[in-house]
Design goal:
125 residues, 76% helix, mainly alpha
């Protein structure tokens, strides 16, 4: 039963997270900024697979109890875009980045929690 919990945890954190973030970030958050006249989302070629990979990594990091990796990864992501986000017109993009990152971490934590068997329906007897 443990293997089943691990698989379900990863599926929820990766693909379930992709669906949740698509709805909340791509549809709602970017739509809101567009209505406010704030520059919209630039098309990202590998946005979806990158998000799936990140949530997979975050889930693994939670499972092996090495959260320092998350700080390093987020620092690299922020550093690569820092100059762009200093401009006032890019504040909306920065805020959406923060929301997406926070949601990805929460969903990955949930996936790890499920993978560890902390959901009563999935617990082995």
């Amino acid at each position: 039963m443990k293997t089943f919990s691990i698989i379900i945890g990863y599926v929820i954190s990766t693909f379930g997270g992709a669906l949740i973030l698509w709805l909340l970030i791509d549809k709602i958050a970017w739509g809101y900024l567009g209505k406010k006249g704030i520059p919209g989302k630039a098309s990202g070629i590998l946005t979806l697979p990158m998000g799936i990979l990140e949530r997979f990594m975050y889930t693994t990091v939670f499972l092996v109890n090495q959260p320092a990796f998350i700080a390093v990864w987020l620092a690299l992501k922020v550093a690569s875009q820092w100059r762009r986000w200093e401009e006032d017109k890019e504040r909306g993009t920065y805020n959406i980045f923060l929301m997406g990152s926070a949601l990805s971490l929460i969903i990955a934590f949930l996936g790890a929690w499920i993978a560890l068997g902390h959901v009563p329906l999935l617990e082995s007897k």
